[in-house]
Structure formats: C-alpha cells, structure tokens
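Office hours follow-up: a student asked to see two folded examples consecutively, so here they are.
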Amino acid sequence: MSPATLIILIILLLISTFIVRNFIQKKGSCKDCDCSCPIKDEIRKSKLEDK
C-alpha cells in the first residue's frame, strides 16, 4: 500500500467514526428538532405509557 492510500484510509476511518459517534449520541436524527410529526408523536406516547 502506498503512503497516500494509507493516509486516505485513515482519514476516511476517522470521519466515519466521528459520524457514527455523533449519530449514536443524538440517538437518531428524529430527536433533532421540536417539530411535530407522526413518528415523534408515537415516541412521546410510548414514553408516557412506560411511566
């Protein structure tokens, strides 16, 4: 493997790791905003039923 290929591979791995960590920390993109949608309504209802 050439050094350039190795550098590109390392950069891609770092970027993908950051994206996955960010997605997991946010627990999906459905909780990113306070807007109303059917999926969020179902999530809120299920949380209320669990309590």
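And the second, which I mentioned at the end of office hours:
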Amino acid sequence: MTGQDPEEATATRSAITQRFRRAFRKDGDGDGDQADLRLVHHKRDVYRRVAGRMAQLLPAPPAPLRVALMRLCEEDDPRVLSSGGEEPVDETLVDRLREILIALTVIFEYIEGPYVRVVELVVRNGDKPVVYRNKTYADGLDVPHRVTEARIMAGETETRFTVYPPTAAEV
C-alpha cells in the first residue's frame, strides 16, 4: 500500500472486507445453510441470455421463451424462477425448444485474473448443429461457490455445468 495515504488504505481494506462479507452472507432462512445467491444470479442471467438468443431463432418474445426454457431444463429453484409469482408456461414453446435445443452448458474458466463464464448453446439448424458462445467476465467473489471451491481445493481451472439435457451429469 505504498503511495496511498492511510485513509485510502483503510477505505480499500474496508471495501474488500465488505465484499467478503457479502460473498459469504448466509440466507435468512435460519437453517444455517449458506445460500449460493451468486449461483442464482448466474442462472437467471444465463436463462435470460439464452432466451434472447432463442428469440432470434424462434418467432417468440424472450420472456415466455425464458419460462419455457426453465421448464425444459427442469429448473426448480424458486429463487431462479419468477420473483413475482407463478409465470404461465407455454407448453408449445417448450416443445419447440425441445425440437431445436441440443445442449446448453455453462463453463467457468479461471485464467489468472477474472473468471470467464462461457455459455455454450448448441441448436439444430436443419440437419446441422450450430454452436453459439457467449463470454462474460466475473470477479472471483461473484462466481458460484462451487467454482471457487473447485479452484482452491482441487486446483481446477475449469468448472462445467450441464444445463440441458437436464439428465446429463455435471463434468
């Protein structure tokens, strides 16, 4: 902290401490289990981004596609589902998604610095599969706990979540 005045150094340490506290804050349900709200945030963002891409491929708005996608992927975490109550599911959209969606995988890569989250979407385009990739960057305190745990405890530099098909095992 050379070159910083003591007040700036204290403010920096305080900001870091606050980020750690936010990262490890427990859910208010009283059962002592740590809620991984970062995973919920990433899931919501992935479903939103994939629904946006699917809206370009299917003639449907993103919001109903997001709900149909969550149904197809068997998402059952109430924190990821609508915060405003039960959203209606268009089963026709679920069937249309099932016809074209081959795979949906989320990969967190650690490369000296921020994590890279890659959302890999594989869809049918006639008789050929097409792969779409979306990369975003995330600070180490913003990635799901399982990702940082795999890196710290096992030295893993990549963690994969298979979202679809839902019966596929996580790698």
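Two things to take away from it. Residues 17-35 have pLDDT under 50 and may be disordered. The longest strand covers residues 115-125.
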